[in-house]
C-alpha cells in the first residue's frame, strides 16, 4: 500500500477515507475538465480498499456514483507510489502502463496526473486528467494541472490543520473538564463527614457530573461477608427491596465487584443479563449501560457504586477516568467519615456519661436530651441537671461553657458538679447558687466562662412556684396547658467567669397543672444571620405546635425540627411538665379516684387527652410500665371515637385499690368490631389491642335509639350513645 498507517488515519480524520463525494474536490475535477478540455478528471486518495474518488467529473458509471476503484495494479497508483507526476500522450505505447486495468479494460489512452501531498509531505493521492484517445499535453496544460494539484494539496493540508486544531481543542476541553470534575469532587467530598453526606455527594456527582440516570451506593458489611445498598431511592426503577442485601459469594455484579475489587462495565441490559442471568428478574430491561465501581481503601473493598444510563453505551476513556476518580475520592471520604463517626460516638459516650440521670419526682414529668454538633468529633460544654431537694422542691439547671473541645467539656464537668453539690447542700435561691458557683469558679482556678440558668420549682397550693436566675443565658419558655407559649424574658445577669462579685437577681412565675417549663442552650434554634428575637420567635412557634407531644418526646422532637442537618453547635434541652392530678385525690379503701374530661371533636385533642389520662394515673400511683400499656389502649379508644363516633366525647378515669378503668363515651350507637386486618390494611387494629392487652373490655349502651320520638308533654329521652371501656388489674 503506498501510504502508511498514520497517513490513512489522517485521511479518515479529515473525512476522506470513505468513498463519498467531496464538494471541494469535485470542484477541482470540474476545473480540470474545463481548463484542459478533457472528457474526465478525478482527485483520488489511496486507501486499503483501492482509490477513493473524492473528486470526480465525467467518469463512467459505476465509478462516478460509487467513488471507488478497487482493481489491483491501477495505473493511478503509480503517481502516489512515485510521489511525482505521471504524463503519457498514449499509454498503450508505454510498456509500464499498457497492461494496467484502466488501459486494457476501460480504454484509457492519454493520462496526466500530479500527486497530492498531506501535511507531513507524504503522497496520499493525485489529481488526474484522462482521455480516451491520444492527446499531446502542452506546457500550459501541465502547468494548470500542477497548479490545481497544489491547490488540492493546500486544501488537504488546511483540513488537516483544522482537524488537528479541533482535536487539540477537544483534548484540552476534556482535560479541563476532567480537572474541573476532579476539583469539584474534592470540594464536594471535603464537607462530607457522615455516611449520609457521602452518599448524597455520590448521587449528585454520579447523576449530574457523570451523566448517569440512576445511582446506588452499597456498603460492605462489618463482618466482610456481604454488602448492602444504603438506599434505593435513586436506584433504577423496580429494583426490589428484597435484593437490597447480597452475600459476597452471590452471582450478582455488585457481589463480584466487591469480591474481586475490579470494576464491571456492561454496554447494555442484554450484556448484563448474559453475564449474570439471575439479574434478568430484578433489573429493568429498559435501562441501558451499567457500571459497578468498587471503592477500595487500604487494599479492601469497602463499598460499590452502581451507575446506570438510559441508553446503551461503552466505557470511553473520559467516562472511565471520571468514574475511577469518583471511586477514588469516595474511598477517602468513607475512611474519613468512619473515623469521624467513631470519634464522635466516643465523644458522645463520654459526654453522656458526664450528664446525670434525671430524678423521679412525684407530679412532675421530666425529659432531657443532649445532641452534639454533627460537624465535629469533639464534645462541647453544654449540660443539664436536676436535683430533688425535698418532696416539694426540685432544682433544674442548664448551661453552656464557652468552647467546643475537650477542655471545655472538662470545665463543664467541674462546674456542673460544683453546682449540683451546692444545690443539694445549700438551701438557697437560684441567684445565690449562681453566685456561689461563680466565686468557686474563680477561687478554685477553673476560670471557665459560660452561661447558665438555675430554676427552683416548688409546690404550693394547687400549683408550682418557679423561681429562676439567669447568667447571660437564653430565657426559659413555658408551654401553657392551653397551647400558648410564654417567654420568661428578663434582663439577664452577668455571664459566669467575668466578675464573680456581680449581683444576681431572682425572678418568679407560676406553673399550673399541664404547663411545661423548657430550658435549652442556644444551639437549639440559633441561626447565622438572624437576631436573637427572630430565632426565639421560631422556637416559640415550634414549641406551640408541639403542645400535644408527650414530655418524653418533646426535647428530641424540638432538636429534630430546629437543629439543621449540619448542626454547628451542641444542644441541651430540658423539659419539665407539671402533671394534672386526679380531682378526687388518690384512691383509698372504699373510695376510688375519679376524673372526667370532655374532648373536642378533633384528632388534635387526642394527644392532650392521652397526656391528661397519664397525669391522672401518675397522681394515683400507677407504675410507669402499666401506664405505657394504658397509653396505647387509650390512644386507640380516643382515636376510634373521634374517627367513627359522634360528638360530644368524654373520657373518664377510675382507679381503686385493685384495678383501673378508662372509658371513652360518644353519641354514636355503632358498635366497635373485632377485625383481622392484613399487613397492608391501614387500620382495624384498635379492638385487637383491647382484646389482647386489657384485662377486660366492653361497650356500655346509653339511652334509647335516636328514632324514638317523645310524646307531647314528655321530656326528651336521655342522650343516646355508648362508652367503650377497658380495665387493667393493678396486681
From TrEMBL:
UniProt-annotated stretches for the region Disordered: 700-720
Gene3D superfamilies, per the entry: 3.30.450.40, Histidine kinase-like ATPase, C-terminal domain, PPM-type phosphatase domain
Keywords, in A-Z order: Hydrolase
Ranges of residues in domain GAF: 20-166, 193-344
Domain PPM-type phosphatase: 361-578
Domain of life of the organism encoding this protein: Bacteria
Entry annotated with the keyword Hydrolase: yes
Entry keyword Hydrolase: yes
Pfam family, one: SpoIIE
Protein name listed in UniProt: SpoIIE family protein phosphatase
Organism: Promicromonospora vindobonensis
Amino acid at each position: 500500500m503506498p501510504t502508511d498507517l498514520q497517513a490513512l488515519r489522517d485521511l479518515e480524520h479529515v473525512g476522506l477515507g470513505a468513498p463519498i463525494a467531496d464538494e471541494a474536490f469535485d470542484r477541482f475535477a470540474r476545473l480540470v475538465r474545463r481548463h484542459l478540455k478533457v472528457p474526465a478528471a478525478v482527485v483520488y486518495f489511496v486507501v486499503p480498499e483501492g482509490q477513493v474518488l473524492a473528486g470526480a467529473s465525467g467518469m463512467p458509471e459505476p465509478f462516478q456514483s460509487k467513488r471507488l476503484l478497487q482493481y489491483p495494479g491501477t495505473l493511478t497508483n503509480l503517481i502516489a507510489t512515485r510521489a511525482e507526476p505521471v504524463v503519457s500522450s498514449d499509454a498503450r505505447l508505454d510498456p509500464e502502463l499498457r497492461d494496467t486495468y484502466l488501459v486494457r479494460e476501460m480504454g484509457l489512452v492519454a493520462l496526466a496526473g500530479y500527486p497530492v501531498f498531506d501535511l507531513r509531505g507524504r503522497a496520499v493521492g493525485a489529481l488526474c486528467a484522462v482521455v480516451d484517445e491520444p492527446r499531446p499535453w502542452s506546457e500550459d496544460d501541465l502547468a494548470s494541472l500542477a497548479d490545481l494539484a497544489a491547490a488540492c494539496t493546500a486544501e488537504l493540508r488546511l483540513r488537516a490543520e483544522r482537524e488537528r486544531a479541533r482535536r487539540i481543542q477537544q483534548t484540552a476541553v476534556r482535560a479541563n473538564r476532567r480537572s474541573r470534575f476532579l476539583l469539584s469532587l474534592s470540594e464536594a467530598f471535603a464537607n462530607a463527614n457522615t455516611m449520609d453526606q457521602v452518599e448524597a455527594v455520590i448521587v449528585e456527582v454520579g447523576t449530574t457530573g457523570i451523566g448517569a440516570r440512576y445511582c446506588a451506593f452499597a456498603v460492605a458489611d462489618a463482618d466482610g461477608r456481604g454488602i448492602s445498598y444504603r438506599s434505593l431511592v435513586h436506584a433504577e426503577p423496580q429494583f426490589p427491596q428484597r435484593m437490597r442485601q447480597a452475600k459476597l459469594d452471590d452471582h450478582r455484579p455488585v457481589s463480584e465487584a466487591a469480591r474481586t475489587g475490579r470494576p464491571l462495565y456492561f454496554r447494555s441490559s442484554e450484556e448484563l443479563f448474559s453475564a449474570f442471568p439471575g439479574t434478568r428478574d430484578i433489573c429493568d430491561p429498559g435501562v441501558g449501560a451499567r457500571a459497578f465501581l468498587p471503592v477500595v481503601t487500604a487494599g479492601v473493598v469497602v463499598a460499590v457504586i452502581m451507575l446506570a444510563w438510559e441508553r446503551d453505551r461503552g466505557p470511553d476513556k473520559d467516562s472511565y477516568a471520571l468514574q475511577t476518580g469518583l471511586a477514588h475520592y469516595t474511598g477517602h471520604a468513607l475512611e474519613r467519615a468512619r473515623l469521624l463517626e467513631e470519634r464522635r460516638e466516643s465523644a458522645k459516650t463520654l459526654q453522656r456519661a458526664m450528664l446525670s440521670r434525671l430524678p423521679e419526682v412525684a407530679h412532675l414529668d421530666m425529659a432531657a436530651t443532649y445532641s452534639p454538633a454533627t460537624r465535629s468529633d469533639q464534645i462541647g460544654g453544654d449540660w443539664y441537671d436536676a436535683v430533688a431537694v425535698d418532696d416539694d422542691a426540685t432544682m433544674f439547671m442548664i448551661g453552656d461553657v464557652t468552647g467546643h473541645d475537650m477542655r471545655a467539656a472538662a470545665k463543664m464537668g467541674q462546674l456542673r458538679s460544683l453546682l449540683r453539690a451546692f444545690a443539694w447542700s445549700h438551701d438557697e435561691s437560684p441567684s445565690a447558687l449562681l453566685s456561689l458557683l461563680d466565686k468557686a469558679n474563680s477561687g478554685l482556678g477553673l476560670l471557665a466562662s459560660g452561661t447558665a440558668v438555675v430554676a427552683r420549682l416548688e409546690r404550693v397550693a394547687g400549683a408550682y412556684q418557679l423561681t429562676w436566675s439567669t447568667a447571660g443565658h437564653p430565657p426559659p419558655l413555658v408551654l401553657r396547658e392551653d397551647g400558648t407559649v410564654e417567654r420568661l424574658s428578663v434582663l439577664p445577669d452577668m455571664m459566669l467567669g467575668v466578675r464573680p462579685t456581680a449581683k444576681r437577681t431572682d425572678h418568679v412565675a407560676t406553673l399550673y397543672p399541664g404547663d411545661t417549663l423548657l430550658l435549652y442552650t442556644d444551639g437549639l434554634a440559633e441561626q447565622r444571620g438572624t437576631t436573637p428575637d427572630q430565632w426565639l420567635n421560631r422556637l416559640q412557634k415550634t414549641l406551640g405546635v408541639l403542645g400535644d407531644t408527650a414530655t418524653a418526646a418533646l426535647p428530641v422532637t424540638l432538636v429534630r425540627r430546629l437543629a439543621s442537618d449540619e448542626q454547628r453547635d451542641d444542644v441541651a434541652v430540658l423539659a419539665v411538665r407539671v402533671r394534672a392530678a386526679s380531682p378526687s385525690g388518690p384512691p383509698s379503701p372504699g373510695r376510688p379516684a375519679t376524673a372526667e374530661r370532655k374532648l373536642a371533636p378533633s384528632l388534635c385533642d387526642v394527644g392532650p387527652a392521652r397526656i391528661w389520662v397519664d397525669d391522672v394515673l401518675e397522681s394515683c400511683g400507677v407504675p410507669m410500665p402499666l401506664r405505657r400499656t394504658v397509653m396505647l389502649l387509650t390512644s386507640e379508644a380516643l382515636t376510634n371515637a373521634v374517627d367513627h363516633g359522634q360528638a360530644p366525647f368524654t373520657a373518664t378515669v377510675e382507679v381503686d385499690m385493685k384495678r383501673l378503668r378508662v372509658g371513652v363515651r360518644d353519641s354514636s350507637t355503632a358498635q366497635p368490631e373485632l377485625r383481622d386486618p392484613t399487613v397492608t390494611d391501614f387500620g382495624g387494629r384498635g379492638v385487637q389491642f383491647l382484646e389482647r392487652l386489657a384485662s377486660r373490655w366492653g361497650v356500655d349502651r346509653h339511652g334509647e335509639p335516636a328514632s324514638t320520638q317523645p310524646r307531647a308533654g314528655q321530656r326528651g329521652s336521655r342522650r343516646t350513645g355508648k362508652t367503650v371501656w377497658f380495665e387493667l388489674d393493678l396486681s
